Amino acid sequence: MSEGRLAGKVAVITGGASGIGAATVRRFVAEGASVVISDVQVSEGAALCAELGSACRFVRTDVTREEDVANAVDLAVEEFGQLDVMFNNAGILGAMGPIAKSLMDDVDLTFAVILRGTFVGMKHAARVMVPRGQGVILSTSSPAGVVGGFGAHAYSAAKAGVIGLTQSVAAELRPKGVRVNCIVPGAIVTAMTADLTVGNPQDLAGATDAMKADSLMDRPGVPEDIAAGALYLASDDAAFVTGHTLAIDAGMTSAIGPSPFARGRYEEPIGILEGGRRTEHDATKGSKS
Fold first, then answer.
1. How far apart are CA 158 and CA 144, in angstroms?
2. Is the dihedral of CA 51, 233, 90, 147 positive or negative?
3. Chain centre to alpha carbon of residue 33
4. For residues 272 and 174, what is the distance between their CA atoms, to the nearest angstrom?
5. End-to-end C-alpha distance for the chain, whole angstroms
6. Active-site residue among 155, 165, 208, 225?
7. 8 A C-beta contact, residue 211 and residue 11
8. Do residues 138 and 88 make contact, with C-beta atoms less than 8 angstroms apart?
9. Which residues face 59 on adjacent strands?
10. What is the pTM of this model?
11. Minimal CA–CA distance to 178: which of 245, 89, 90, 83?
12. Active site residue 155
């Protein structure tokens, strides 16, 4: 096993067979961790496990079934002796459409995967981490959980719930040596976003081109960007970080657009004072009012 920031650590990553989850599995293994890949996508999960070798195990996991999540945690302990990091990353887009036409079976499934699945992951991670007095629990939220209009209603509510749950559980587990944080990924090129943007979950190149047009930086995000954030939060570098929501979103939730006060009529600096009075400027002496 390579030496790295997670050398000797053991992680379970739900939704680990593709997208953000798969990128995080690869990064964690590269940093010395052993990883249980937990996902409903059997062929993808088994292939990733085969690619990465003895540092990985795959287990089919439907996060809406508590016994599946418990089994993934137990497998990590049985195969690798412990659990240091639980990354509740599994998610779906779920129920779409107007609130007045909502299909409640789809709404319930959305909550079951995103919020209940995260809750159960935290429960069973705590079950094995608290007796050891150490561990890290991570979860994936979304800009839709922070700002209205970035996601469908059920998805937004569930992702907001992940943030609230993170803060609540962090307060409980902090004195027990377990840190609890979550990540807000921005516009990331994955199969799900490819499906949304170009109608083909396999067309990542097309999704990249489509998403670049609206990107807040020079490119859309990639799963490896989120894996880097997960690595930081999972590592000892974040030993004093808990109850935190880390936005990896090019400023989507904190700097939503270009500043209107640094371009156009304000491209040259000026000060605006009371009653519309402007500051006077002298390039050689600075400004004065």
1. 9
2. negative
3. 19
4. 47
5. 65
6. 155
7. no
8. yes
9. 38
10. 0.92
11. 83
12. yes
Amino acid 219 reads: R
- pLDDT tens, position by position, 209-255: 888 888 888 888 899 999 999 999 999 999 999 999 999 999 999 98
Domains of the chain: 10-186+221-257 (3.40.50.720), 259-289 (no CATH)
Within 10 angstroms of residue 172's Cβ, the number of other Cβ atoms is 13
pLDDT tens for each residue of 17-68? 999 999 999 999 999 999 999 999 999 999 999 999 999 999 999 999 999 9
Residue among 136, 230, 234, 232 nearest 188 (CA): 230
SS3 string, the chain, reads CCCCCCCCCEEEEECCCCHHHHHHHHHHHHCCCEEEEEECCHHHHHHHHHHHHHHEEEEECCCCCHHHHHHHHHHHHHHHCCCCEEEECCCCCCCCCCHHHCCHHHHHHHHHHHHHHHHHHHHHHHHHHHHHCCEEEEEECCHHHCCCCCCCHHHHHHHHHHHHHHHHHHHHHHHHCEEEEEEEECCECCHHHHHHHHCCCCCHHHHHHHHHCCCCCCCCECHHHHHHHHHHHHCHHHCCCCCCEEEECCCCCCCCCCCCCCCHHHCCCCCECHHHCECEEECCCEEEC
Report the amino acid identity of residue 160.
A
